[in-house]
Amino acid sequence: MTRLYRLSGSALEPISRGKLVNENLIEGWIERQPDLLGLDLLVIGRQVVTEFGGRIDLLGIDADGNLVIIELKRDRTPREIIAQVLDYASWVSDLTTRQVHDLATGYLNGQLDTTFRERFGAALPQTLNETHSMVIVASAFDASSQRIVRYLSERHDIAINTAFFSVFEDEGRTLLATDWLLDQAEVAERSEARVQAPWSGLWYVNVGEGSNRAWEDMRRLGFISAGGGDWYSGPLQRLQIGDPIFAYQKQAGYVGYGKVASTAVMARDFETRQGPLLDQALVQPNLAHDRDDPKRSEYVVGVEWLRTIPLPEAKWAEGLFANQNIVCKLRDPKTVDFLKEQFGVVID
Fold first, then answer.
1. How far apart (Å, rounded) are the C-alpha atoms in residues 201 and 330?
2. Residue 296: how many CB atoms within 10 A of its CB?
3. Which range has the top average pLDDT, 117-131, 189-203, 302-316?
4. Number of other residues whose CB lies within 10 A of the CB of residue 22
5. Residue 270 burial (CB < 10 Å; 0-12/13-18/19+)?
C-alpha cells in the first residue's frame, strides 16, 4: 500500500487518503500526460471502438512504433477488466500499419508522421504494431488478480501490467501517487524477447545529454547517469559490475563502449578518481539537481570506458536499434555487428 508523508520539522506526518469524485478524471490526465504513469507514449486514440463493440479507453504508440492499450478499471471487477483488456489486445494485434495511421490521423487531426517526430525526435518506423502491450490502471487490485497478471507476464511473456494510483488530501490539495505491480521495463523486455533474437550479453544505455547531464562529463569522469524520478533512475539498478554497455544518445547515435565499474548510487555519493563527483568542474553542473532527494536525485553508475567519442562523431546507420528505454538488453544482430566494427572491440 502506498503511503505519503509530510516533513514537518524533524518529524514525518502521514497524509490522509482521499477519493476522487470522478475517476474519469484519471483518463483525461493520462491522455494529456502519459508520463503520469512513467510511460513514454504518444496517445493516438481515446475511446477507440473495436470491431467487437468494445471501447479502448486510451491507445498509445511508443518510440518503436508499438501500440499500448491503457484501460481503467473503474467499477469493473479485477477479473472482468483483465478479460476485457485481453479481448482488446486480440483486436489490436491484427491492426495493420495502414489502420494504425488511419486511427491516429482521425484522433490527432493531422499526420502521424509529423506528430511522432515532434514527440520522439525520430522518424516514424515504416512498420508499426509489431508487438503491443497492455496497462490496467486501478486504485486497487485483489491478490488473486495480481497473481493472474504476474502469471501472464512472467510465465507466458505477455506484455501486461497494472499501474496503481492513490489519492491523498493535504490541506485542501489533492495529491496523486502512482506505482506499478511489475517492473514495466522487464515486462516489455520479456515480451519483445519472444519475437527478437537472443540477448547478446550487451546492455544498451541512453546517455540523456540535456539540461541535467552532459556526455563530456560522463566520458571524462567515468560514469553514466539518470534521474528525475524512479522511472528514469530505477533501470540503472539492473547494471552490475562487469556488465558491458554501449552508450547511445538520442538523435545522434552510439558514443561509447565500456564495462560497469560500480553499481548505482546517488550522485552526491559517487566518487571519481579525482574525488567526489559533484565537487568536480562539470560541463553540466545541474547534475547536482535534487541532490538530497532519494526519489528525484540523479543516480550514477561507474563505467570503465574502453572507447568513447564526442557526440558530433556518434556512430549511426539506418535501421539500427534505438529506443526510449534508459537501460535494456541489446539483441539486434545487425546493431551488435555494426558496433563491434565501429568501436573496434572483440565481444564474446
1. 7
2. 15
3. 302-316
4. 8
5. buried
- Supply the pTM of this predicted model: 0.61
Which domains, from first to last, does the chain contain? 5-193 (3.40.1350.10), 202-343 (3.10.590)
Per-residue pLDDT for 342 more than 90?
A: yes
According to DSSP, the β-strands at 67-72 and 55-61 are: antiparallel
Instruction: Please name which of 145, 132, 45, 63 lies closest in space to residue 91, comparing C-alpha atoms.
Output: 132
pLDDT in tens, 61-80: 988 788 999 999 877 787 88
Sign (positive/negative) of CA torsion 272, 278, 281, 282? positive
Q: Are 337 and 330 in contact (CB under 8 A)?
A: no
* Contact assessment for residue 37 and residue 30, using Cβ atoms and an 8 Å cutoff: yes
pLDDT in tens, 220-260: 999 999 999 877 888 898 899 999 999 999 989 999 999 99
Q: How many CB atoms lie within 10 A of CB 134?
A: 27
Amino acid, single-letter form, for residue 320? L
What is the 3 state secondary structure string of the chain? CCCCEEEECCEEEECEECCCCCCHHHHHHHHHCHHHHCCCCEEEEEEEECCCCCEEEEEEECCCCCEEEEEECCCCCHHHHHHHHHHHHHHHCCCCHHHHHHHHHHHHCCCHHHHHHHHHCCCCCCCCCCCEEEEEEECCCCHHHHHHHHHHHHHCCCCEEEEEEEEEEECCEEEEEEEECCCHHHHHHHHHHCCCCCCCCEEEEECCCCCCCCHHHHHHHCEEEECCCHHHHHHHHHCCCCCEEEEEECCCEEEEEEEEEEEEEEHHHCEECCEEHHHCCCCCHHHHCCCCCCCCCCEEEEEEEEEECCHHHCECCCCCCCCCCCEEEECCHHHHHHHHHHHCCCCC
Is 320's pLDDT higher than 80?
yes
